[in-house]
């Protein structure tokens, strides 16, 4: 998850967003949209920040997850699969409700 969240970067010229693994520019170091060559990473996307955000999120979400699990309405989905597969599973759960 850290790799997924910490891999984002942005073209400084036009603001186009990329991901080093999942959505790199067609030509390394060159923005697909504007041809710019300067990129940056937001502070929120740096690995240390991402790890801290995840830890805080997990700690603060635990009571909510426990609540919905006790009501038997919590669904767990493996998000490390293809986007279409994950979307399909989420859609099926929603449609059953």
Automatic annotation (TrEMBL):
Protein's name in the database? Adenylate kinase
Q: Does the keyword Signal apply?
A: no
Protein location: Cytoplasm
Provide the top EC class: transferase
Q: Which organism is it from?
A: Candidatus Enterococcus mansonii
Belongs to which family?
Answer: Belongs to the adenylate kinase family.
Quaternary structure? Monomer.
In alphabetical order, the GO MF annotations are: kinase activity
Tell me the keywords, alphabetical order.
ATP-binding, Kinase, Nucleotide biosynthesis, Nucleotide-binding, Transferase
Q: Which domain of life is it from?
A: Bacteria
Please list the reactions this protein catalyses.
AMP + ATP = 2 ADP
Residues in Adenylate kinase active site lid domain copies: 8-44
Q: Name one Pfam family in it.
A: ADK_lid
Which Enzyme Commission number(s) are listed? 2.7.4.3
């Amino acid at each position: 998850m850290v790799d997924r969240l910490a891999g984002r970067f942005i073209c400084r010229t036009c603001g186009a967003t990329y991901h080093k693994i999942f959505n790199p520019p067609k030509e390394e170091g060159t923005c697909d949209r504007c041809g710019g060559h300067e990129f940056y990473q937001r502070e929120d996307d740096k690995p240390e920040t991402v790890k801290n955000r995840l830890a805080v999120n997990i700690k603060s979400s635990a009571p909510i997850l426990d609540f919905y699990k006790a009501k038997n309405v919590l669904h767990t989905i493996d998000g490390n699969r293809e986007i279409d597969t994950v979307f399909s599973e989420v859609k099926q759960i929603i449609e059953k409700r």
